[in-house]
Amino acid sequence: MCSYQSDLFSGVRAWLLGTAVLITSLVVHTAARPYEDEETDWVEFLTLIANLLVLVSGPVFTVLRDSDQHGSAETFRTVLENVAALVMVLAIVATAWAQHHVWKLVYKADEDYKLHMVKQRLADCKTTTEALE
User: Fold this and answer.
1) Would 125 be classed as within a structural domain?
2) Contact call for residues 101 and 39 (beta carbons, < 8 A)
3) What does the buried/exposed string (b/e) look like for 55-83 if buried means 16 or more CB atoms within 10 Å of the residue's CB?
4) Residue 113 falls within a domain, yes or no?
5) pLDDT tens digits, one per residue of 29-44
6) Which residue range forms the structural domain that includes residue 69?
7) 42: left (phi over 0), alpha (psi -120 to 50) or beta
8) Does this model's pTM top 0.70?
């Protein structure tokens, strides 16, 4: 393997690269909203945030291990852990809600789910167009 590849994927550079990939994913996802169902978009957004929080907590553990500033780093780690846990719980709840929503539309509705989502998007576009006029 080339030396630049081994340097890029080790230590702090690997952490920074992972953080950059997750932040880019968050920005692109927020702008694109790739899923037809709004609830699924929220689930993806929350899981990306949870992944970012877990990734950011890595250097805190390094600071705790290598530094004499245990007090402030440990407080930050505790806050970060609690926020990450809360976001993960929200992601799980949002996932359950989204799955229930899709299940209800698929099994209890008379129309196809895809058709329902297309009709909903068209109605949203019509509402937006009317508001702009």
Assistant:
1) no
2) yes
3) beeeebeebeeeeeeeeebeeebeeeeee
4) no
5) 888 888 777 888 888 8
6) 3-106
7) alpha
8) no
